[in-house]
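Hi! If you just cloned this repository, the fastest way to understand the data is to look at a raw example. We've pasted two of them here, unedited. The first protein comes first, obviously.
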Amino acid sequence: MTMKRIGVVGSTTVDKIVGQNLSFLKMGGVTTYSGITYARHGIDTLAVSNIAEPDQDISARLQKENITVFNGRTEHTTHFVNHINSEGRRQRLPRKAQPIRDTQIANILKSAGAVHLGPLHPADIDMKAINLLGDPACYVILDVQGYVRSVRNQIVYPIVSKKLSDALTVAHIIKANKSEYDAIIDFYQVDLIELMNRFKIEEFIVTLREKGGFVQKSTGEKIEYDADRIGSLEDPTGAGDVFLAAYIIAKIFQKKNISAACSYAANLVAQQIAGNYIKKDTLLLTHKDGLD
């Protein structure tokens, strides 16, 4: 497969990070972490997202990273509040952008060899847009996180969405973390190979944090990988997006085998979590929006 361009689709966010003795705002979302990763590896990167007019400085930052931004109209940019501690992360979603429409997806399909989907909640990408990706000529990479959560009263809960099936139907490579993977298997009541056969998935990546993870191939082969040692914990936000983009870069664009692609992605994630890849200064925002 020969590809030189990729479209990255999903919310670009204003993230409030709250931890022990710290609180700050930064830009985030798949278009930020995956988009920047693709672009920094010399891949022509198109970002499809909805960023509100007051936050167009975020769009300008993406463009500075050599990402072409296809921005839609929206009253609000998606805002997340991430409370991070040693036990993990809990999230609130106080503001949501308008869903990404099929007309926005259509703008990139003729030129992008692949589309990387990174929805943050079930309504992030309109289902007409998802169904538009069913063309066999379109190679689709999916991070499932937005389809294994629900938002009620601004609180994010881990619940599998019925919309997941539509997304799995069009996707070739899937990524999930351990809790997302377990929820999906429980939801469909099948084992992973059966799930992959049902939806014609080529590869299913499961990340296990400090334990590494594995890639399950549709042929039945399972390739495990180790996590890289992290020298210091700066901020894990965006690690999954960096991992998936780095894996696709190594596997699809650089033609590396799965083991080598996983090792490369794990190394880049360790750098990201330690604050040494997409650095805080690149992402930091100065909005005074009163989010708590």
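Ok, and the second one:
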Amino acid sequence: MHQFIVLTLKGLTLGMIYAGMALSLVLIWRATRIVNFAQGAMAMFTTYIALSVVDRGGSYWLAFVVALAAGLLVGGAVERLLVRPIESAPPLNAVILALGILLVLEAVVPMIWGGQIRSFPPAFSIIGVTVGKTHIALSPFDIFTLAVLVGVMLLLVLLFRGTRLGLRMRASAFSPEVARLLGVRVGRMLTLGWALATMVGALAGVLIAPVTLLAPTSMDVVLVFGFTAAILGGLESPVGALIGGIIIGLALNYVGGYLSTDLEPLGALVILIAVLMFRPQGIISRTGERRV
């Protein structure tokens, strides 16, 4: 029973990290109709920028803010300089471009920061708390992670459902021609979508780096699990991304704890195949005609 509780708490924490990556994928999908497979590499890049701040004596909070700002700038620059020229091209072009960005970033980062595994300081203790005589495998940093990512999910729901900006972003993604006729600056909306999505990915990066350490390819597996969580929850739903991330985190921890950690990627693959076969729209989806 104790092992089950420990695995559940650890799975909940890691699931929230995967949910953070899933949220960034959902955001960019809803804003631009693109699945950005470079999201993990971009998160890794911004996390290294944050680590540079720490190496130069900056605090965690300064590095945290720098990572988010770097995410905004990197995402906006990628959209304006690389994605914009292929805006009207077939969707496969965007996928190939994203894979190219991933390869470039994973080649450039070792040239700048080196290829060795680096540690990243947490904002709070990563040691589980003790209540009375009971030790709970949930650290203050885990609680901080949970609170931050739930807050981000709520803000995204509010953005897309309760603001004119969110409506414009969705209209620009689904029907750019009509949006332009209605006076929406479609180009700006697409840039903003990429910038916000990369910022959320950067947030996931700085939250998971203290737990899993940091390397040029360390975010690849996070992207895979985050993508699986996004598909499981539904690419249209921030709430689904959160739920999908928690399910993936719990499932993989149970597989790793009771069977073998080597089987965790296989577990994610089984979940992904099952979802695509039986409920490809995700566990949270809207039926009927879609309205932007």
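That's it. A detail worth noticing about the second one: Residues 2-32 form the longest helix (31 residues).
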